[in-house]
């Protein structure tokens, strides 16, 4: 998961979200079989996760990780392709009959970190740790593959397991595509997930944006006589786009977990917002003039699309109108954009099987400048990116990604294999 370097807030997502113990829907025998098989292989998946955790590899160096993945998939009997976009791996599981084609993506790289590990199976690679949960993502994806192989004789269609390198440095997805990923596979739908500080046992999603759209705004002016005044005007013009009151509960990031006003609440205050990074403005010489830049986060396309017209109007009504050249928004991170139809259908299907209290619909957008380069796949294939809970508050386990104390309740591996195996089965046979 990508994160803006300047944002170091620790966010305890959904602290107040409660989980009820629910009887799982066993009316569909195949989902019962999925749960039974997941139980059987759970300990082996934990062992895989811990092995990956002890030998983490940063983006571009995932040789051992890739080899382990390829060997596991080969042993399952999948067609396996390696060396895609670096150390990317693709496993192909074909059912007994032709049918729909669905892809599941898992990222596999670790991160630089000098903080000591907090688990009993610490990293043996000094300065590198899995503090974003990609070891868990890999174990879940391998578990899904293992589980669905058991259902091969009843499968109609093809499942692609895409193990992507170099997510943290925003290179892996594009590198895989440059290496012909979508010539190699032709999915009609694509899915992915990321561990978050949700309680273990839950997953969540929403249509369109999952994270705020973090953009750089550049305003270009001809050189004027009073550069200081121009800079102050441009800065204030950008700041005026913010539509969240300074007194709002929005700014207390722990409120993102509030069951009413948080991002899972029906009365979420984390929607329809534009915010400005107040400590990140600059002015530089550019194109025989000056470029004044700031950084803005948008909760949705409507907010984003209104920004440039609003700035142009303010400038047109100012004393600097004649010096103005152009304004543009520049991508900082790729923006996730979940397919609305697939989100709605997926959440409904999983709720029917596992219960609404485990399958959450988000109403707000995470407001802390994160993203994921899975977004680069989304324009190519209709897709959904899920959050999966990894925290256990009673045990003091908080799955806050990119934090020194990152840890997961490993029961979430079972959740991921169960729910997402069932999802793929449902999507193959809508």
TrEMBL record:
Cofactor binding notes: The Mn(2+) ion enhances activity.
Full protein name: Amidohydrolase
Gene Ontology MF terms: hydrolase activity; metal ion binding
Manganese recorded as keyword: yes
Binding residues for Mn(2+): 132, 134, 168, 194, 402
CC cofactor: Mn(2+)
Listed Pfam families: Peptidase_M20
Annotated TM spans: none
């Amino acid at each position: 998961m990508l994160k803006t370097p300047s944002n170091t807030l620790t966010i305890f997502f959904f602290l107040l979200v409660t989980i009820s113990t629910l009887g799982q829907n066993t009316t569909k025998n195949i989902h019962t079989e999925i749960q039974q098989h997941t139980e059987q292989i759970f300990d082996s998946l934990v062992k895989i996760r811990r092995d990956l955790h002890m030998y983490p590899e940063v983006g571009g160096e995932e040789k051992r990780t890739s080899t382990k993945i390829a060997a596991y998939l080969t042993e399952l009997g999948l067609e396996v392709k390696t060396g895609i976009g670096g150390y990317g791996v693709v496993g192909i599981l074909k059912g007994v009959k032709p049918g729909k084609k669905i892809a599941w993506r898992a990222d596999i790289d670790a991160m630089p970190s000098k903080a000591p590990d907090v688990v009993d199976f610490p990293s043996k690679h000094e300065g590198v740790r899995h503090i974003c949960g990609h070891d868990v993502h890999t174990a879940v994806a391998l578990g899904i593959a293992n589980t669905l192989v058991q259902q091969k004789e009843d499968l109609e269609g093809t499942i692609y397991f895409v193990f992507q390198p170099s997510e943290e440095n925003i290179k892996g997805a594009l590198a895989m595509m440059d290496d012909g990923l979508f010539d190699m596979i032709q999915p009609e739908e694509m899915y992915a997930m990321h561990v978050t500080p949700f309680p273990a046992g839950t997953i969540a999603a929403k249509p369109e944006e999952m994270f705020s759209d973090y953009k750089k705004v550049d305003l270009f002016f001809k050189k004027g006589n009073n550069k200081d005044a121009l800079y102050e005007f441009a800065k204030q013009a950008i700041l005026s786009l913010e539509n969240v009151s300074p007194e709002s509960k929005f700014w207390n990031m722990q409120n993102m977990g509030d069951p009413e006003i948080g991002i899972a609440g029906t009365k979420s205050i984390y929607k329809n917002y534009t915010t400005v990074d107040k400590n990140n403005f600059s002015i530089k010489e550019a194109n025989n003039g000056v470029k004044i830049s700031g950084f803005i986060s948008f909760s949705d396309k409507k907010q984003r699309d209104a920004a440039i017209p609003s700035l142009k109007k303010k400038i047109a009504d100012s004393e600097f109108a004649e010096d103005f050249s152009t304004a543009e928004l520049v991508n900082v991170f790729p923006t996730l954009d979940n397919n609305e139809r697939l989100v709605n259908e997926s959440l409904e299907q999983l709720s029917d099987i596992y219960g609404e209290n485990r399958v959450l619909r988000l109403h707000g957008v995470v407001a802390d400048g994160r993203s994921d380069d899975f977004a680069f796949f989304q324009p190519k294939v209709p897709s959904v990116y899920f959050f999966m809970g990894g925290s256990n508050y009673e045990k003091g386990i908080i799955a806050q990604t990119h934090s020194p104390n990152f840890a997961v309740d490993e029961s979430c591996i079972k959740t991921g294999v169960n729910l997402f195996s069932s999802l793929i089965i449902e999507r193959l046979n809508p």
